[in-house]
Amino acid sequence: MVNEYSDDNRILIVENFDEVEQPYTCEAWGAFAEENLPMIFTDGTPAWDFFLWDMFSLNCSAGTIVIDHNMRIRYVLDYFPSDYLNSIIIPELLVELEDSRHDINGDGQINILDIISLANIILYDNLNELGDINQDGEANILDIMAIVNLILGT
Questions:
Q1: Contact yes or no for 115/148 (Cβ under 8 A)
Q2: Range of the domain at 141
Q3: What is the CATH number of the domain that holds 65?
Q4: Distance from CA of residue 70 to its chain's centroid?
Q5: What's the pTM value of the predicted model, to 2 decimals?
Q6: What is the pLDDT of residues 101-116, one digit of tens each?
Q7: Domain end call among 99, 120, 138
Q8: Contacts with 9 (C-beta within 8 Å, 6 or more apart), sequence order
């Protein structure tokens, strides 16, 4: 199921992998991993240079990191993708991201400041996907109206 989200630009799932032959063989580790996910290999790296391993793993040989569209690390898991990641974590994160789509400036509130931010996107950066509220492929007045309607409750 994780593979279904590998092309979704709202989230990024990265796997960290170390100690190729410990405690499993390379083939066994490969069976745990998901296809199409970026993987960070730190096997063979000197112990003093485990920056990525230390940052993205919880004292184990394998770890999974879920990063949202703002490049914030949302989850650090000490295992490869599992049913829990597939059925709970990713769907909850996607619902949260969908609910926050109208919050253009990311302040946690949907108000006139989001309309102003969206107007600036439309005027100066029409290619910004953030401005495409109604997901029609363009940032335009219809997206502003979507936020206005949400604020007014209509």
A1: yes
A2: 112-152
A3: 3.40.30.10
A4: 8
A5: 0.47
A6: 788 887 878 899 999 9
A7: 99
A8: 69, 129
